[in-house]
Amino acid sequence: MSEKKILIVSGTHGNELNPVWAVKKFKNLISKSPKSKFLEFTIGNPKSLEEGLRYIDVDLNRSFNVLKTSSNQKFYEINRADYLINKYGCQGSEPCPIVVDLHTTTSGMGTSIVMYGRRQRDFCLAAILQSKFGLPIYLHEKDKNQTGFLVEAWPCGLVIEIGPVAQNHYDSEITERFLIILNFLGDLISNLKNNRISLPNEISFFVHQNSIDYPRNENYDIKALIHPLRINNDWKGIDEGEPLFLDINDNVHTYKEKEIIYPLFIGEAAYREKNIAMSFTKKEILKCDQEWINGFLSFLNL
Length: 302
Ligand SMILES: [Zn+2]
Description:
Layout: E1 6-10, H1 18-30, E2 39-43, H2 46-51, H3 76-88, E3 98-104, E4 110-116, H4 120-133, E5 137-140, E6 156-163, H5 172-193, E7 202-212, E8 224-226, E9 243-247, E10 252-254, E11 262-264, E12 278-287, H6 291-299
Parallel strand pairs: 1-2, 1-3, 3-6, 4-5, 5-7
Antiparallel strand pairs: 4-6, 7-12, 8-9, 9-10, 11-12
Bound molecules: zinc ion.
The site of zinc ion has 4 residues, from loops.
């Protein structure tokens, strides 16, 4: 059986160039080192990368649970999702138990982790990364409008999301941040094998509640922009009365609920087509169980 344990995906969105560059550089750096032993690499959406587009027909990162129908069976991404699962999925020809999918965002999120659902293995991996790098975690769950994410098609998987960076723009500060994570992942399996990794006492994360759209007029045109006080303030809590949007007449639209909320993906360019101006989250803390590591080791046959 293949020794590859972690599949690194870059270019799942073809207009996010920095993860692709970082992987290229990393592969060069590690070609003769043991770091390459447990890692496999693939480009998620090569055709859209060539075109500089997020996707060709549909968003690949929403296509991993889509039933094939006569209307979508020719869609490039629907078939690409099948190809990736058939190659690298559990039952695939070159199976990898863990997937790490690298993305960038135009919002000021910094370096962060995105989890989908509450799988113990994902918590284990996320806790390891959080304790090493202090990264904030967005737990995306219970969102009926958004499903079919790539990492959900593997038994364990996370997204690394870094921003802000414009689409189709190379930024070496962003690529270097990906390299730090890639380096850590390159050593992770041997460190786990040799019991060099323990879990922190707890993991903290921001749980998805709902997403909000831009205010719109009767023609459904956007009628207010993200308020300047919200820009680059992802992960920061807001209370009732704090500004969200600013319209053309300088009217401020405020947050109206009583409960403190933490907005993320504020103004993400790719989400305008999904009618999302930002997503609201609540903070949660979970005690880590050292047993998670044992479960993780046996899952990986280590
Ligand atoms: Zn992306």
